[in-house]
Amino acid sequence: MFAYLNMFLLLTLLQTAPTNVRQIRDTYHHAINSEDITQELLAQLTQKQSPTPTEKAYLGATQMLMAQYAFLPNQKYAWFSKGKSNLEEAIRAEPKNAEIIYLRYSIQLNVPSFLGYSDKKQADKALLLQEIKQLKDKNLQDRIKLFLQKEGNLSEQERALLP
After folding, report:
1. How far is it, in rounded angstroms, from Cα 133 to Cα 98?
2. How far is the C-alpha of 144 from the C-alpha of 150, rounded, in Å?
3. Hey, is 135 helix, strand or coil?
């Protein structure tokens, strides 16, 4: 049943290739649990000629997702490194972009510590808590808020800052 539902979701997403950030965001969140969707999103993002920093960040995050599907450790690390490079390039272009910081923060909370990709967790969390109320994109604001509530390691004081 799950395989059928996953295939239906994949076909639906593939028929509407992500063309805007909202579609990319939605597809990315489905890709987290699907190798097929991850590969398709990766192909679509790789084809973008002049990606915006946000699109570049999603490319990096998707490449990092590919690491979980690679078989050999060196392949896993290669995907992770390529993704990290693209994500950090996007952050250098737009260091206060809450969506890009949200991607990095969520990845930092979920990657193994031996990868050494957790040094910006506190700064990213602080920026998200500072910027979340100013977000005009309600979908993005709700997604970040839900993530922070469930996985953000927030103190009671930090929870009070959420909209």
Report:
1. 11
2. 10
3. coil
Q: What letter represents residue 150's amino acid?
A: K
CA 154 to chain centre: 19
Predicted TM-score of the model (pTM): 0.87
- The encoded tokens of residue 42 equal 């990766």
| 153 three-class SS | coil
CA distances (Å), origin 19, targets 32, 119, 132, 136, 144:
19, 32, 24, 20, 21
Residue 13 pLDDT > 90, yes or no?
no
Q: Any residues with CB less than 8 A from the CB of 1 and at least 6 apart, and which?
A: none
- Per domain, the residue ranges of the chain are 2-94
The reported pLDDT for the residue numbered 19 is 60
Note the pLDDT tens digit of each residue in 92-127.
Answer: 999 999 999 999 999 999 998 889 999 999 999 999
Decide if pLDDT at 133 tops 60: yes
CB 9 within 8 A of CB 33: no
* Residue 99 in tokens: 């969506």
